[in-house]
Amino acid sequence: MKLGNEKYKYIFDEILKMTDDGFIVVDEDGIIVDINNQYCDFLGRTKEEAIGSSILNIISNSKMVDIVNKKYHEFGMIHKFCKGETKEVENDFLLVNRSCVTDEKGKVIAGVAQVKFRLQTLDSAQKLMREYSELQYYKEEYNKIRSNSHSFDVMIGKNKNFISIKKRAMKFAKTDFPILITGETGTGKEVFAQSIHKNSIRQNKPMISINCAAIPHDLIESELFGYEEGSFTGAKKGGKPGKFELANEGTIFLDEIGDMPYDMQSKLLRVLQENEVEKIGATKTIPIDVRVIAATRQNLNEMVLNGTFREDLYYRLNVVNIEVTPLRERKDDIVLFADYFLRSLNCRYKTLISISDEVVKCLINYNWPGNIRELENVIKSAYASCEDLVIQVNDLPSKMISYTKFKNEDSPDKKLKTLVNKYELLLIKEALKRNNNNIQLTASELGIHRSLLYKKVEKYGIIF
Question: What percent of the chain has a predicted confidence (pLDDT) above 90?
Fold first, then answer.
């Protein structure tokens, strides 16, 4: 007797109830059409919430949409769920089998995934986590090398402002206009510059970077435009090509353009206007075809007004502006960056160190004047000082602990003098702790006289 489709549905449902594994089925658009109770329980969702929703709304880093779009399958893969997308925070990775389903004509009609719950013992979980972390680390390193370190698709961030800026940058990348990237130190301006180049029509040509703030005044012209042999004392035999010549047909990245000497700005402007460079000591010019991306932490508009930056050069560079958001305005990305930096360290040193909830709160509440670069250094420092498998608050820099305590102070008296006194008390306590309660060393660190420190210790009733 041949079974009808409806009977197969009942049989399939019974199998999904009996199995220890989790199953999920999506249609060709990635919409969930079925999921068993075991998988729902793992995700902390109900069937009603899941069925009819895009799988990306339930499992944001799911590969099922890619599976059905590109018609492939994979078995024994390790999948790590994003934070907050599983019922149990510690239980966030599984072994997964995924496959597309096709009809007799080869047309994709669905995608199905099976997750293995029986492997979630402590030993196998730790082994899987190590293997997954190592795999992710090498995958990210490979992607960096393949994409010349950076590309839009590996940029970290889910903040709405950041996503909007990234979309604009992707759009600008397709043009050949000069771009000015502005933002504070450590916000990732060079990452944007690299990504723009890798998504432009010049991606197979060189991208040459030069930090205008790091080159001595008397060398910047030769670095940018090159020189001929014998043009000055110490010139190399055969001369040297400049950065613009090396970047021909590609992109030149002028980092910290606001620090370029004023007299060099006029020479740079001429190069941008004429599309040609003249080496030091040369008698003829060299035509160039270069896309210019500049970046600065300074306010060039103000510099134009006070006469320290050429107005004509400013408008030549600022055809398109991208202002990178500081980390303190991307609170929802702080944990993503921290996890990324920590995962890289765990992979590199074969460890399984994690971050405590208290540390996460400190990271989110801190104002990050050094932005992403400062966050990376804080994670490295905390990792190095961590004595067990979890980074605790005392592994963080004291300035972060003091700042968080000060910011979270819940006193009803918010007058300026009271706040200043409380912050001063925190600073003195931290300095005394660092110097083992040595008054002379503490006073020296704080830049005050020893007698004044004694008075403040008495004023605040500090006991040591």
Answer: 50
Residue 253 predicted with pLDDT over 90: yes
Give the strand pairing for 108-116 and 179-182.
unpaired
Question: What single string gives the DSSP state of each residue in 207-244?
Answer: EEEEETTTS-TTTHHHHHHEE-TTSSTTPPTT-EE-HH
Name, in order, each residue with C-beta under 8 angstroms of 388's C-beta and a sequence gap of 6 or more. none
CA distance 50 to 393: 38
What mean pLDDT, rounded, does the chain reach? Answer: 85
Provide mean pLDDT across the span 194-216.
93
Q: Which of 34-38, 181-185, 406-410 has the lowest mean pLDDT?
A: 406-410
Cβ-count burial 230-246 (b if 16+ within 10 Å, e if not): ebeeebeeebbebbbbb
Residue 2, number of CB atoms within 10 A of its CB: 4
- Determine the 3-state secondary structure of 129 from DSSP: helix
Please return the burial class of 354, using the count of CB atoms within 10 Å of its CB with bins 0-12, 13-18 and 19+. middle
Q: What values do phi and psi take at 264, rounded to 5?
A: -75, -25
Q: What angle do CA 287, 293, 299 make, to 5 degrees?
A: 130
* Predicted confidence band of residue 437 (pLDDT cuts 50, 70, 90): confident
Q: Which element (helix H / strand E) includes 347? A: helix 331-349
